[in-house]
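Q: How would the structure tokens look for this protein?
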Amino acid sequence: MNFDFGDTDGKYKVELENGALNHTANAEASNADITIRLSRETLNNLLLKQTTLDKAIAAGDVKVTGNSDKLKEVLGYLDNFECWFNIVTPDP
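A: Here is the predicted structure in token form.
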């Protein structure tokens, strides 16, 4: 996948390989399945759950080119954690 955050925040190549998600700054994959263009502000709003990806796409804040099913596939692999989950639990 390619992520394009515009001129000021750069471009990133993101690869999922052997269960690991890796990124390379200032790079683009010429054979990427999908390219996602958004601003850092839009990314922040998504991460803070102030909007959803579907709403951001509908509003034109996120532009997706390529195979959008690949994005859904990768997002499906990600875990969702509660905000205040226990990192370490006490021994019983």
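The two ends are 44 Å apart (CA to CA).

The chain has three helices and five strands.

Upvote if useful.
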